[in-house]
Amino acid sequence: MRIRVVDAFADRPFTGNPAGVCLLDAGEWPDEAWMLAVAAEMNHAETAFARPSERADADWDLRWFTPTLEERLCGHATLATTHALAADGKVSGKVAFATRSGILTATVADDGIMLDFPVNRPFEVPAPEELGAALAVEFAEVYVAGELRDLLVVVRDEATVRAVVPDYDVMAGIIEREKLRGVIVTAQGTEYDFVSRFFAPGSGIPEDPVTGSAHTSLAPYWGERLGRNELVGYQASARGGVVQVSSSGDRVYLKGQAITVLDGELLV
After folding, report:
1. Among 255, 234, 237, 260, which residue's Cα sits nearest to residue 245?
2. For the chain, where are the alpha helices, taking DSSP H only?
């Protein structure tokens, strides 16, 4: 079986967020334990599996796995899968995916791939106990982001975002206790409209390099704060990546580029 590693939200190799991509033949899904084992072997934040869909409203079925579990929504692996399909000549223009988060569409253009995702609007909450100990930085506001249940933590400035060195044990305890997916730390940017980082130790991802799905809450938050619909965010991980965002009603649009860095054969 062919398997690829695609750097998503990246315009050059070894930046952005790497995702494994397996394009399957039509038919039944492989055993879930096998897909999880492949994802653990790849050891990227996500490995995507896609097959031609039999549904009238979708072109492909799509699932995402971290090294430890099946994910509900993943932006960068959707972008990576779309890139692989386009590279093989299997799609052009718009493609519809049937996923655990409903029908998601991606549109291929010369300047990147646009993802159409459901919004995860944040609502303000009291700061969980031990959040200060988990982040070791001061924070101003705390929100929970929609159905994904990411904790959105707003800090003073970009330097503070970059300075975060989490205590992952404490953070994992907060995530488990509060039934969260992960923790987003964000601030207004200098070169970009906003910057962020994303931590999900409970999903086997201590720090995710560039998290498309996190931007489904960052886009409406910063759009309202800055008074503009179209924004550019930078996820300030060690690899780093740029995500162009806009939102309209209950939808968020994420745009980025991708590049294939590995193309090989899975032997088991």
Report:
1. 255
2. 32-42, 75-87, 131-135, 158-163, 168-178, 215-226
Structure tokens at 177: 């206790």
Q: Among 90, 97, 94, 109, which Cα is nearest to 48's?
A: 97
- What residue has token string 């982001």? 145
Regarding beta strands 182-188 and 241-248, do their DSSP bridges make them parallel or antiparallel, or are they unpaired? unpaired
Give residue 202's pLDDT: 85
Segment 154-205, tens digit of pLDDT: 999 999 999 999 999 999 999 999 999 999 999 999 999 999 999 999 888 9
Q: Which residue do the tokens 């079925």 mark? A: 61
CA 185, 186, 187, 189 torsion-angle sign: positive
Catalytic positions: 46
Query: How far is residue 63's CA from residue 74's CA, in Å, rounded to a whole number?
Result: 9
